[in-house]
Amino acid sequence: MAGAWVVSAAIVGVAAWAGHGPAHESGSGSTTSPSEAVWQSPSGPGPVSSGNAAGCDSAARERDLAAVVAGPPRVRAEGGAAAIEVFEAAYYLARDAGRARALVAPAAAIPQAAQIQAGIDSIPAATTYCTHITALDHGLYAVEVAETRADGTKNLWRQRISTDDADHATLITAITHL
What we know:
The chain is α+β, with helices and mostly antiparallel strands. The protein has helices spanning about 1-10, 60-70, 80-95, 95-100, 115-120; strands spanning about 25, 30, 35-40, 50, 75-80, 130-135, 140-150, 155-165, 170-175.
């Protein structure tokens, strides 16, 4: 079940980067420049859902998020839920461990990109996911990632995720598997 840890490590925060060039709004929750995109947590109370699985209640936001993780080489998350959303999208949609690990605080006890990529590669490309993120306190989230593989196999990963804001970005600092 070592791969399960890597799968559930698909929740991390963003390292801070400075953008270059003019930024512009590209859709719900994001701002982009040629080298950086900014993804913001949704406003308002309540849980956040993100993913490409049928029934995930996030279709419009997910299209924007897919464009963000496929676009500029860097994504800066603003808010804990945003960091979690971007990490999961990098993992499941972009299938890019480098993008995913870039969202992790450097000191976090989370595998390096090579280990994360091995986890990504162990999951069929047609796998869909839905992440439910519930704020418990400032910087602390209850997270469930429901994964459905093309053969119908379903997995549910439950986690408690901690985030911290640093240098105009949100970083995931810890993942506790429940």
